[in-house]
Amino acid sequence: MSIRDNFKSAKKQYEKWGISVEDAFEKVKKVPVSIHCWQGDDIGGFEVNQQELSGGIDVTGNYPGKATTPEELRSDLEKALSLIPGKHRINLHAIYAETEGEVVDRDALEPKHFQNWVDWAKEHELGLDFNPTLFSHPMAEDGLTLAHPDKEVRDFWIRHCIQSRKIAAYFGKELGTQALTNIWIPDGYKDIPSDRLTPRQRLKDSLDEIFSVEINESHNVDAVESKLFGIGSEAYVVGSHEFYMGYALKNNKLCLLDTGHYHPTEMVSNKISAMLLYSDKLALHVSRPVRWDSDHVVIFDDELREIGLEIVRNNALDKVMIGLDFFDASINRVAAWTIGTRNMIKALLYASLLPNEKLKELQEKGNFTDRLALMEEFKTYPFGAIWDYYCEMQGVPVQENWLDEVKTYEQSVLAKREA
Ligand SMILES: C[C@H](O)[C@H](O)[C@@H](O)C(=O)CO
Ligand SMILES: [Mn+2]
């Protein structure tokens, strides 16, 4: 049977429940996923004085073919994008600036240092998002940045964040699509602090200073990303969830929830509806923590499906800004992007093909037997045939056929790069 024949027969099964597959396609097709550039080079970046990765995050693996220039990274992204259905965004970190061999410190970065990215994004009709990089830098050596006791250090990072927002606003203006600037800082302590309040007070003051600079909101929106712990900040993280949730609500900023930044049994899917009751928008870093914030490639697992469901059934596709954040250097990096991003989109399509209204109704009536039965049965509905047809319609490889393209790219491009 052809992809189309499989699709036609699968579609009938969903239609039994009044589910329009075409409507689901239309809905999902419009959702941009912000694809993080840093999977392509293990968060190395292109600074002239490149520093070791710091900030309590780690990339493991040494798969050959890592991008070492902006051109290589963009070429790898293009390859991945050609295998992913839909139109998406690319998420940059400040360390991906191109300064033509000149040493430009982070607090002096300007939009012009990202002009190549903007030109490339225009050419490929992509939106761009941005992150100031408050790690892998001598000024972040002791693991403290915006909450540092030394005002000179704080001021340096405040300037960097202000510049970052200006860069993102430039992206938004040039590309005609609002950029998201997400601030994540590593600040914390390895061991039990004797004062939790003072660093948090300093972080609050630093953020106030950063956001006191007015930026055109139609070009840029700001988010703050919390974390539970990192390597070297096991006992205390200044920017905890409660800290940023309070800050974001009070100051009209977006909370960014990274799925790897909570206690292992605490699920981001369970937070979305609660947070959307109090803020119009929310941002995500979809990742896969394996026992810790390990940033494994996103797979089509229970939590990803649940995140998709929470976004879809609460009509929040335009309220939740979906970004990815994983980095695996033990596998082909183009494949990593392709797997993780296809899975994210797959989860949204899966969620759009559930009888969500009926399931809500069953819950309201207290009919938990039917609710569970249907939710379980739908897991083995012929979703694969629908997904395959969606990929075909979107002009990207069906099933694992994309892997052949990655292998060809590996042989013809990645394998020729210097180790
Ligand atoms: C590159 C990092 O993953 C990113 O800046 C941050 O979002 C994070 O999740 C740190 O754990
Ligand atoms: Mn993150």
TrEMBL record:
Binds 1 Mn(2+) ion per subunit. Keywords: Cytoplasm, Isomerase, Manganese, Metal-binding, Rhamnose metabolism. Pathway: Carbohydrate degradation; L-rhamnose degradation; glycerone phosphate from L-rhamnose: step 1/3. It comes from the Bacteria. The keyword Transferase does not apply. Mn(2+) binds at residues 261, 293, 295. Catalyzes the interconversion of L-rhamnose and L-rhamnulose. This is L-rhamnose isomerase. The gene is rhaA.
